[in-house]
Every structure is written in structure tokens, then in C-alpha cells.
Amino acid sequence: MTWEKPKAIITRNDSPDIPFDRSINPYRGCEHGCFYCFARPTHAYMGLSPGLDFESRLFAKRGAAELLEREIATPKYKPDVIAFGTNTDPYQPIERKFRITRSLLEVLQRAPHPVSIVTKSNLVLRDLDILSDMARGGLVKVFLSVTTLDRELARKMEPRAPTPERRLEAIEKLNEAGVPAGVMVAPIIPAINDSEIETILTRAFAAGAREGGYVVLRLPLELRDMFREWLQVNFPDRLSRAVSLMQSMRNGKDYEAQWGRRMAGSGPYAWMIGRRFEMAAQRLGLSETKRRLRTDLFRKPAPAASEAGAQLSLF
Fold it and tell me: Which domains, and CATH codes, for the chain?
């Protein structure tokens, strides 16, 4: 693990196909080792491999909580939901030691400021004290990503992530504590886990999930070759069909970065995936309409003692 010293902690975006305009990623790289992770190519920007380096050479952001407090205290800052887990998992194993995610939540709890979290880890339950308190003010919701219910398949796809059962248990325990916890069926991989959509939603609903979403497989840059290599090793008999179906959702290509298509794909197969998800969600009573979190409770943090002293010294 290498410490990184960022100048800012909140990342902004103006993408019209995602429901947030700001996010925080406490770590670069991810120990879970999910072969399909669309964030893998970002490691190449660091001069490292999107393959093994991505899951074994990690970066943690030093002073993240202090940066966050400073950024949301600026006069021009307007509150809106900050998304955690948009690139790498905020609750990957090293969070047990470094607790950067928890320190960030402590800042948001004090503000109070809304946050949404996507994770594959039941480590999120460690922070139930903070999350349940924020939930009482309508300030937080959590989504557990459940890719498959087959433990053997999960081990091949997500070798160091918690088991599917642990994730479903986390959904249940969060909801029991009053923290809205939904499910993300993501990614849906043609010929690999696409048969499980309805079953995953049914199990998540039984665990208390009342919101859900899905994302189809994304293969930017180096992931295109990694996907084929993974299929050749684990499912050589499905390689041709999986690639063919994947390309049918991407206008004959391996990947489309176009807004509106990159998450759900296009074409008949993508349409079928979407309708299956919608029908299962309707049957269960799962909402695809995301409940808005509150922003009206936000109060800018007071200046840190050192900053206040510096200001006083000017007069």
C-alpha cells in the first residue's frame, strides 16, 4: 500500500446517465480482484498493470477526512449526495486497518450531509452506528452489489470479495437497523450470470431490499482482452457465445462509451435483460425510482482550530 496525497477528495462529474454529480474513492486499486472491474484500466495511468497490480498494489488517500471537511466548508459549496464506491470498493479489506471510509462518514455525519454507498462487502456493518444515525435523518442509503448466488462462480469472478450470502446478510442487517439497503445486480455478464437476475432480486427482497438496479458488463480498454482470457480459463465452452452476446449489446463492438448506452447496452438482448429486470422488480414490489436523500439539514463545518487561529492573526 502506498500513501497518496491528493489536493482534493471530492471528484466531480457531469455524466447524464448516473444519478450523482460528485463522488469519493478513498482507495485506488481493489483487493477483491473482480476480473470484470471497469476501474482496472485506471491503474495504467499510474504506470501499473490493470491486471495483478490493480489488486495487489494499492493506494490510500492520506488526510481524506480533513480534505472533505475543508471542501464542504467553503462558502460556494452546495450540498448534494456524495457517492462512495463508484470506482473501487470503499470497504475492501484494507479499510479494516486504515479506516479512511469511516473517517469520511464521521465528517458527513457531523455536517450532516447525504451519502450513498455501493459495496460488495459486509464490512459496511462495522459502521452501523454512524449509518443508522444518519438514516434517521434521511441522509444515507446503501446498495450491496450481488453478482451471483453461486458461491463457486463468485469465487471465480470475485476471488477475494465476501460471499453472496454475506452480502445478503448485510442487506438484512442494515434494513433491520433502519438503514435503507438495496441491491445492485451488477454486472450482468452474458452466458455467465444472466440467468440469475430474478433469483438475486427475490433473495434481496426477502432480505429487506426495496430498491434495486442493474448494470450490464462494461469492457473498456484492457478489459476487452482480460474478459476473453478469463473465459478461456474458466468457461472455454461459453467463450464464443458470451463474446457474441456482449457485442450484440454494444453495436457489434466490445464497448461503447456513449452516455445512456454504456450502463444498459442496446439491441434486442439488452432490451430483454432490461424487461426481465423490470418485470421481476414489479412482481416483487422493488422500486427502480431512487428515494431522494435530504440536503436541507446540511450545516457547513466550523473552521478547524488551526484555520481559525490563522484567521484571527490577520486582525
Answer: 2-213 (3.20.20.70)
Taking the C-alpha atoms of residue 260 and residue 18, their distance in angstroms, rounded to an integer, is 9
Report yes or no: 113 and 138 within 8 Å, Cβ to Cβ: no
How far, in Å, CA of 17 to CA of 25, rounded?
19
Distance CA 194, CA 187 (A): 9
Which helix (H) or strand (E) segment holds residue 84: the answer is: strand 82-84
193 contacts 152 by C-beta, under 8 angstroms: no
Give the mean model confidence (pLDDT) for residues 204-233.
94
**Other C-beta atoms lying within 10 Å of the C-beta of residue 75:** 5
Per-residue cell: 235:
468457461
Find out whether 212 and 204 touch, Cβ atoms under 8 Å: yes
> Looking at this protein, which amino acid is placed at residue 38?
F
Residue 131 CA to residue 158 CA, distance in Å, equals: 26
Q: Which amino acid is at 188?
A: I
Report, in angstroms and rounded to the nearest whole number, the Rg of the chain calculated over CA atoms: 20
- Tell me the per-residue pLDDT of 14-72, one tens digit each, with 9 for 90 and over: 877 677 899 999 999 999 999 999 999 999 988 999 999 999 999 999 999 999 999 99
Q: What predicted TM-score, i.e. pTM, was given to this entire model?
A: 0.92
- Cell numbers placing 15: 455524466
Q: For helices 164-176 and 128-136, what crossing angle results, to 10°?
A: 40
Those residues with Cβ within 8 angstroms of residue 104's Cβ, 6 or more apart along the chain or in another chain: 9, 24, 26, 64, 65, 68, 84
**What is the C-alpha separation between 27 and 59, in angstroms, rounded?**
6
Q: What are phi and psi of 14, to 5 degrees?
A: -125, 30
CA 38 to chain centre: 11
Q: How far apart are CA 313 and CA 16, in angstroms?
A: 45
User: Nearest 5 degrees, angle CA 223-CA 227-CA 230?
Assistant: 130
